[in-house]
Amino acid sequence: MKSLSQYINLYAECRRQLDLVPKPIAALRPKALDALRVFSEQTMRRAPYTEAAIDRLLEPDYGLNIQRMGFAVDLSATFRCEVPNISTLLGVTLNDTFRPTESLMRNIPEGLTVCSLTKAAAGMPSVVERYLNTLAADSTPQAALNTLLFQDGVFVYAAKGVSVERPVQLVNIFNAPVPLMAPRRLLVVAEQGASLRLLLCDHSQRNDIDYLSNEVIEVFVHRDASVEIYTIEENGASTRHITSFHCRQEEGARLTLNTNTLSTATSTATYTIDLAGTGADTRLGGMVIADAGQTVVQNVELTHSVPDCTSTQNFKFALSGKSKGAFGGKIVVKEGAVRTNAAQTNRNLIASDDARMTTAPQLEIYCDDVKCSHGATTGQLDPLALFYMRSRGIPEAEARLMLTQAFMADVVDSISYDLIRDRLRQLVERRLSGEKASCAACAAENTCHC
Amino acid sequence: MKEALLKVENLRAGIDGKEILRGLNLTVHPGEVHAIMGPNGSGKSTFGGVLAGDPRFSVESGSATFHGTDLFGLSPEDRSHEGLFLSFQYPVEIPGVTMVNFMRAAVNAKRKYFGQEPMGAADFLKMMRQKRAIVELDNKLASRSVNEGFSGGEKKRNEIFQMAVLEPRLAILDETDSGLDIDALRIVAAGVNALKTNDNATIVITHYQRLLDYIKPDFVHILYKGQIVHSGGPELALELEEKGYDWIKQQHQS
What CATH number does the domain containing B173 carry? Predict the structure, then answer.
């Protein structure tokens, strides 16, 4: 991957500034650098729609905010969030710098930590050392690049048995006058029996400047703990987004991950999940709505390592214009992981002649006595349903919108947290009806306290 | 004599290049009930689909004038707004779209077409309740997806319910009797009769005479090989019931 050498050189030049981070972070750099050097010599190894795309995404010469310049941005004036009736514990990451809100500091419950990763690395280094980069582990070029360059991030920690009612909402915002890459990092730990809800929102405030978010998320769900993560990506037309999501679940741990890509230029996500403790349960849902020249790639690599775990996946794409979608869904059932129950569906709707979808479901099963299913379909809106609706007077555009919404309904309906479910329904409707999905355009009644 | 509501002249239409309607003529006036009967494959359902604007069919030549408007110049949705309604032989299931949202979209689209504001929530629900009563449609179906999991009888009653809501000037009932037991048939027919006025008209497409015991036609037409080959009064339906379609086939074979 040729694109990597410019970043290797950048690190060599700016090493002194980049390593001005607490030791648990700085200590990760040498290995990441070694890994990147190896990747930079390699050509594509895996599915072409992943790595070729990553190479292209990293190619432009983005700036990095190495000097930690503060961009003067009035967040309260530009970022307004409308999540009705949800009072969240809100933290904002501007480009790659975490800014907790006052209300977060005030309202944070006992047993929950939400703070910047550098602060956590300085204040509780042993905890951070124990987890940070142990899952991502420089396993891909994008993850290694993040580890080499990130200077801040967010740390979320729920102590043993702590159940946090209010969702923690982390908003990533791009706003910079020049093209910028943000290596974003999120570390989430739910200790034994803890439960936690996260709402992750991605926004860019400008459509005319190229931004690249190269994000690594690591999530540890300990025994009998529960983590629910909902993501909403509403980025601008020049924002590219790479997500490397890694999760490890211990015995009886539950993970719900529901991703919603509503607008972007290019968005590539890989969700790597290891069901490492018996009785663990994973529920993945994903919704992609893409049009114009947008590209959205979703890869799942889910591994059943031990007996008696369950996983479900439901990913849906609605593509129009000249958009491209790709889904790679790999389920690995390791030797000995008996009584595994894994189901995966990927359904895709192509609404135009020029939209393209690639789907590659894969099962690798090294064990008997398992239940695994997968199914992938790609098709168009039902012409009979469309005519039926039009014959009742519903205009074609509206009928298409209603049918597309109906197609997505089960992904949204599967969200157990009703307030987020209702909010998403609205967002989807607005997105499909062609309104610009942007944070600033959000007709806010409640202004978030930031 | 009132002005014709629908005037179809020399209509030729087909599907995938295969001609099905071969010069069909029909005139319907307000207040009339017409029955179109005929053996399988004669073009009955094609006729209903072509009038409603089913994109699978293409019109090759001929015209259809609907209260003075060129029907084929209108989109399916505008045909609906202008007062045409097709009760489908096979009502389409639409998973994920609830009946109530479906009907609200239909009602408000029509209001918008005529420059009216959308209907208020309370008025809408009240109207739904009244119209459901006409065909004894269960309230519970309102929150279900359109036709999904409906029984055969419920699907057909749902068609007449939609007709009651949209108040068409011309309703085309395509094999509304198929798949119905005698009780459901009575309810559906009673619904259609209740909606009948001197200003609207109905075309009943049916293979069997039994529906016509409940919906009394003023005119009966026999469609064969894409043309109306025989027209008469209600007695023609009884004659068909008795003699079958063979005599028609024989007459037009030579």
Answer: 3.40.50.300
| CA of B106 vs chain A CAs: smallest distance (Å) | 5
Distances (CA, A) of A167 to A86, A194, A196, B217: 8, 13, 7, 65
Question: How confident is the model over B142-167, as pLDDT tens digits?
Answer: 889 999 999 998 999 999 999 999 99
- Overall average pLDDT of the A210-224 stretch: 97
The number of domains in chain B is 1
- Which two tokens mark A330? 């790999």
In this prediction the pTM is 0.85
Residue percentage of chain B with pLDDT more than 90: 76
The token pair that represents A433 in the structure block: 């009806």
Report the alpha-carbon distance of residue A177 to residue A210 in Å, rounded: 10
Top residue of A392, A402, A407 to mutate, by most chain B CBs within 10 Å, is A392
Q: Within the 374-393 window of chain A, which residues sit less than 8 Å (CB to CB) from chain B?
A: 382-385, 387-393
Nearest-by-CA chain A residue for B75: A390
CB A38 within 8 A of CB A1: no
Q: Which helix (H) or strand (E) holds A107?
A: helix A102-107
CB contact under 8 A, B55 and A403: no
